[in-house]
Design goal:
The structure holds two protein chains of two kinds. Helices cover 18% and strands 28% of the residues of chain A. Chain A is built from six helices and 18 strands. Chain B contains six helices and 21 strands. In chain B, the strands form four sheets. Chain B has a seven-stranded antiparallel sheet, with helices on one face. A six-stranded antiparallel beta barrel of chain B has the order 10-11-12-15-14-13. In chain B, strands 16, 17, 18, 19, 20 and 21 form a six-stranded antiparallel sheet that branches. Classes of the chains: A alpha+beta, B alpha+beta.
Chain lengths: 362, 403
């Protein structure tokens, strides 16, 4: 009798624990069990204001780790600690100045100098191995989707302690400079805005996964918005990571990828477009860009731009004043088309100025 | 064996039922927490998709110079107020927000279709810089020059009109149907791109800011001010606006992304929008009194603007304000917290005390441009005593200086 009742009791408790435990996990168990073992803690040199710790995301079985570039990675005492507490020596392979991404490599296990074994990783290159949970190469991600980050903000987790998990939803994909008045930041590509609180010291480089545990990005460098004075929670998207990784692996130890710099300096053979538009200027640079004159026969004239038109946007970027107009036009090469949105009296019209659409002067 | 000798009792039956029930529940729960998350995210996506035709991207061009570019920026609060003849008609609203200068938003913002015939609701916050041109882009790509019909500086709403007759009006949910803890999803177009941005939270409270707002912990910031706060079925709960318990066009910016956000619910929106539609703007209401800063625990009137609604009601300096709108007033801060949500033109019931006798007065709050100057005081103050802005009667600024 006691045996029979005891069994029922035990079964009851264990089933309750199992069911309740699963509910307690909140449905993020796939995400977390994928992100945690693929997240590593980084330790290196503390330089000035920069903290001497960080987080990385494992992207190959033999120990390649993507993270956000900081000076701590330049340390010759770079340490990488995996989720099971194993400590590895790390080495900076290469980094991209524009994207602020870095690739590091776990070299040997610190205790005993043995080689790096097969590690769980996110197959973002989709070059080898089966992606976790049968993931496709580009997981679907729409605004409103749950996302989970696993990293080591404030180096709360130590040794074999698992990283800290944060959850929220993916809000929007945008350019960082589209977020108004954020501080100057060299990365001008797309970012994933999330509503989880991830923007904390040590968190940049943390994997961000969807509900199925597929990597959708890594948490980006800390940026405080000048407008809101709040930290901006965002991730560098997976496609950007992939192109960085493939380039970095090809380059090997060749040093920094300086493509970003090269582009911002725009080389010596760059010449900005001359559409033939003269803008009204009074010396007050915050005036909206009104067209003062359109050169006869110029690409702009052919496209139908007229005097007194107000230019609202250049190639999709709003140009509220002369400064932003000049900046946008200065970035467009002479062989590129220019899309303008123009206000003419009460109408809003779109024109496309085609390059080289002007009879060359003899 | 022992157990077979015994007849099964109702107790054993009950235990059995509980056992199998737990077994079933356990396995269902284990599978369902993930499925629940999946279905939640499906719902979030579908809310965004359902509301997208009713969202309008609002862009502005021109306006006053963004702050932070000079050192002497003083901006009119509204065009008419800026044309006033007195220097106190201008102020520096941009400085009161977080104690430091910062540039005001100039990126795209969000609006919500209010009526099929071209009325669009958004936040007045988006027009603080007095833009010269406002454009509205519909989900199908059509772009219009929008007219700013009127705005409500108190509830931070604005009504725009475009020349269109086929707009998609979203469904609204009544405030009486709201429950604290229900999903609250904020949508915005401020990040650019075609998809609406989504932030998710719950409804934190349904009666804030003297009934003018509901509260959510979904992240709100300029990217979704003017946009809708929705429930899980895609019904609009309110229009997201920056708000705080103090006056000022930029009050509420201190709550960006903080988990404290506000939206104006349907009952208020309907009330306000019907008047905005007729071109009636709402401005901050003023009594026109200066309280005596030397009296610490009572609201004693020191000086009264002439003309002012308080003066018209026969109130004189020395009278003590005991109650306003039914709330006990003991100092300047109380008065601010009681009046900041009442626009000019609305009546306020004051209870006052003079020489030990109580009397009441119905005061219709005035706009600050309707207030006259303050008469000179017979005795000058001790200049070392910090005073609220005396020439202004009541000042725009941090609550402790305000009234």
């Amino acid at each position: 009798m006691i045996w029979w009742r005891g069994t029922i009791f035990l079964a009851l408790v264990s089933w309750l624990a199992w069911g309740g435990g699963a509910l307690g996990q909140g449905g993020f168990e796939r995400a977390i069990s994928s992100a945690l073992p693929r997240s590593v803690k980084l330790y290196g040199l503390k330089v000035g204001q920069q903290v001497g710790y960080g987080t990385g995301t494992i992207v190959s079985a033999d120990g390649h780790v993507i993270t956000v570039y900081t000076l701590l990675l330049e340390s010759n005492k770079l340490r990488v600690v995996t989720a099971d507490g194993t400590r590895y020596h790390g080495k900076l392979v290469t980094f991209d100045r524009e994207k602020q991404l870095a690739l590091i490599r776990m070299t040997t296990v610190m205790e005993g100098d043995s080689a790096v074994g097969a590690l769980p990783f996110f197959d973002i290159g989709c070059a080898e191995g089966a992606p976790p949970y049968g993931a496709s190469c580009e997981p679907e991600l729409l605004p409103g989707d749950w996302v989970v980050a696993a990293g080591n903000p404030f180096k709360i987790a130590e040794g074999a302690e698992p990283a800290s998990v944060a959850h929220g939803v993916y809000s929007a994909r945008t350019r960082l400079d589209a977020r108004r008045k954020v501080k100057e930041f060299s990365y001008h590509g797309d970012v994933l805005v999330i509503d989880a609180v991830t923007s904390n010291p040590g968190a940049p480089g943390s994997p961000l996964v969807n509900l199925d545990g597929e990597l959708v990005g890594v948490i980006g460098r800390l940026v405080v918005s000048n407008l809101t004075h709040t930290k901006f929670n965002y991730a560098i998207p997976r496609d950007v990571l992939r192109s960085f990784l493939l380039k970095a692996l090809k380059l090997g130890d060749a040093g920094a990828i300086v493509e970003g710099e090269a582009r911002s300096k725009l080389g010596s053979d760059f010449s900005a477009v001359d559409a033939g538009i003269r803008i009204a200027r009074t010396g007050y640079m915050r005036l909206p860009p009104f067209v003062e004159r359109v050169r006869r026969g110029s690409p702009a004239a052919k496209a139908g731009v007229r005097r007194d038109d107000l230019i609202l946007s250049v190639n999709g970027h709003s140009v509220p004043d002369l400064v932003s107009y000049d900046k946008r036009m200065g970035r467009i090469g002479s062989d590129e088309p220019v899309d303008l949105v123009i206000q003419r009296k009460k109408r809003v019209i779109t024109v496309r100025i085609l390059p080289g659409d002007e009879a060359k002067k003899p | 064996m022992m157990i077979y000798k015994r007849k099964l009792s109702w107790k054993d039956l009950a235990i059995g039922v509980v056992f199998w029930g737990c077994l079933l529940a356990g396995s269902v729960l284990a599978q369902d927490s993930y499925e629940l998350r999946r279905s939640q995210q499906e719902r979030f996506r579908s809310v965004a998709a359902k509301l997208r035709p009713s969202l309008v991207r609002i862009e502005t061009v021109g306006g006053v110079q963004p702050l932070g570019t000079g050192t002497t920026d003083t901006l009119p609060i509204s065009p008419e107020e800026g044309r006033g003849d007195s220097p106190r008609r201008t102020q520096t609203p941009f400085r009161d927000a977080v104690g430091s200068r910062f540039k005001i938003a100039d990126g795209p913002t969000t609006g919500v279709v209010y009526s099929e015939d071209g009325y669009i609701l958004t936040s007045s916050f988006n027009f603080v810089v007095e833009p010269s041109i406002i454009t509205a882009t519909l989900f199908d790509g059509r772009r219009f020059v929008a007219e700013l019909v009127a705005r409500d500086q108190v509830r931070k709403l604005a009504l725009l009109k475009i020349d269109a007759n086929d707009l998609s009006v979203p469904r609204w949910q009544e405030r009486s149907e709201l429950r604290v803890g229900q999903w609250a999803i904020a949508l915005g177009l401020g990040f650019g791109g075609e998809d609406a941005s989504v932030t998710v939270g719950v409804l934190s409270a349904y009666n804030r800011m003297m009934g003018n707002a509901i509260q959510t912990d979904a992240k709100l910031n300029p990217a979704n001010y003017g946009g809708p706060l929705c429930d899980i079925d895609g019904r609009v709960l309110g229009i997201c606006v920056p708000m705080a318990q103090r006056p000022g066009e930029l009050s509420g910016v201190e709550f960006y992304d903080s988990g404290v956000g506000f939206a104006v619910p349907k009952d208020r929106v309907d009330l306000i929008a019907s008047q905005l539609r007729e071109g009636k703007s709402f401005y901050r209401g003023w009594l026109g009194v200066v309280l005596d800063p030397s009296v610490r625990d009572a609201a004693v009137i020191l000086n009264i603007a002439d003309p002012s609604p308080v003066l018209d009601a026969g109130i004189v300096p020395g009278d003590r304000i005991v109650k306003a709108a039914g709330k006990e007033i003991r100092h300047f801060g109380h008065l601010v917290k009681t009046l900041y949500m009442i626009p000019a033109g609305d009546p306020v019931r004051l209870e006052l005390e003079r020489d030990g006798a109580m009397f009441g007065a119905e005061i219709k709050l005035a706009r600050n441009i309707e207030l006259g100057p303050l008469p000179n005081l017979a005795e000058p103050f001790d200049p070392t005593e910090p005073l609220p802005d005396v020439e202004d009667g009541e000042t725009e600024g941090p609550p402790e200086d305000d009234g």
